[in-house]
Write a structure and sequence with these properties.
about 400 residues; alpha/beta; 2 domains; six-stranded parallel sheet; globular
Length: about 400
């Protein structure tokens, strides 16, 4: 039987990505997973720390992360995000954002002190490997949404002193630094990219050796940032738009620019970013109503810190379950990795789950199920060398380069 062009194309083996493995069994994949350095570059678990004991093992459905389950899931390290939702661009709004950010830093400091036998804060790439060898979980503190900088560049130095080594420029709406991929104005075609203030922020982050995170940035903001940055950047939790057409995902144009920059896209496993699915209009209506009430309550970070937030969290989970929950699978997620590798190479992709911020797949709903990704990579024939790059080496390279380029003492 003749092999058609389509079948032949699907059988092509890419140099450096896939190798003929003698054993592609789940057992060998698990052994590999537990023997290599693995890092998740984005989780939102810090939002819960005021009311969630991360040092105690929780059952599935009670958060995606805790330190015992990190160990079970073979996860060496993680970037814990200090997330601040976008608020008013006023002096009062900036003050509130900074206050909430500092409270989260305080919760993280308490975690490191209480569970010093299970985890340790990483301040540098070298710390990741050192802490991993000690048997503890390595936690690097990142920030999601530089809105908490306000208009004071000195706040970057203050957050750096607290350990922040990666900062996301923007979140769901435009801020004073740059435009957001999901802001209504941007979706209507008005994308202004990085502001003049944003240019100074990017330079300052470069000078400090802070990795710039472009997840949530608009296309113009993304391209502007790459043009301005003298260090590789990271999309800490994003996926491929060619596979799932969502504004939060990166287009092929952006991925090619990322390759030129030397940066990395860390695959976000939030189901809606992995697979396009038909959404029930009733779900959309109810979700919009719920989101409005969440914002009136004080934003998503307040749900885990203020009395009454549990009810809204429960309603959110019930609404998601009622309309079917996550539909994408690990196989769907690895389709994104395949696309990215074929387009820009194995050196520019990793994993950033967005756990506890919406991330989750049918067969990867918490940190204990992360080995399922490795099992699928092995099943598809990815080499051990390629899997090591995906699970940690690519992200480490970006952190190392940012540190080497640091000029501020």
């Amino acid at each position: 039987m003749a092999i058609t062009g389509k079948l032949l194309a699907s059988a092509v083996v890419l140099s450096g990505m896939i190798a003929c493995q003698p054993d592609q069994s789940p057992e060998r994949a698990l052994k590999l997973h537990n023997s290599i350095f693995t890092i998740d570059t984005h989780c939102d678990t810090p939002m819960s720390l005021a009311r969630y004991d991360i040092g105690v093992r929780h059952e599935k459905g009670q958060g995606c992360y805790d330190l015992p389950r990190m160990l079970e899931g073979g996860l060496s390290a993680s970037c814990f995000a200090v997330y601040i939702g976008q608020g008013a661009r006023t002096p009062e709004g900036y003050a509130s954002a900074k206050e909430r950010a500092m409270a989260t830093f305080g919760n993280l400091e308490a975690m490191f002190a209480k569970y010093a036998d299970q985890c340790e804060q990483a301040f540098s790439p070298a710390d990741f490997k050192r802490i991993d060898k000690s048997g503890k979980r390595a936690i690097l503190v990142s920030m999601e949404n530089a809105y908490s900088i306000g208009l004071d560049i000195n706040n970057i130095d203050e957050y750096y002193a607290k350990g922040a080594r990666m900062m996301g420029l923007v979140h769901g709406r435009n801020n004073d630094i740059c435009d957001s991929a999901t802001d209504n104005a941007v979706r209507e075609g008005n994308d202004n990219g990085v502001s003049e203030f944003g240019k100074t922020v990017i330079k300052h982050m470069n000078d400090m050796g802070i990795v710039i995170d472009v997840s949530h940035a608009s296309t113009q903001s993304f391209l502007d940032t790459l043009a301005l940055s003298n260090s590789p950047i990271m999309a800490s939790h994003s996926s491929a738009r060619a596979i799932c057409d969502h504004p939060r995902n990166l287009s092929d144009e952006e991925l090619l620019a990322l390759k030129k920059n030397g940066g990395v896209i860390q695959l976000c496993i939030l189901s809606d970013y992995i697979k396009v699915r038909k959404v029930d209009p009733e779900y959309t209506r109810l979700q919009e109503d719920l989101e409005a009430r969440i914002q009136a309550f004080g934003g998503r970070e307040a749900l885990r810190n203020k009395p009454g937030g549990d009810d809204l969290l429960r309603e959110s989970r019930e609404l998601r379950a009622r309309f079917g929950g996550p539909k994408a699978t690990v196989k769907d997620a690895v389709d994104h990795i395949d696309h990215i590798v074929k387009l820009i190479g194995i050196d520019h992709v990793g994993i950033g789950t967005d756990f506890d911020g919406g991330g989750g797949l049918v067969d990867c709903m918490d940190v204990t199920e992360l080995p399922n990704i490795t099992i699928e990579l092995v099943r598809r024939g990815y080499s051990d060398k390629a899997i090591k790059k995906i699970w940690g080496e690519n992200a480490l390279r970006v952190f190392e380069t940012a540190q080497k380029n640091r000029i501020r003492n």
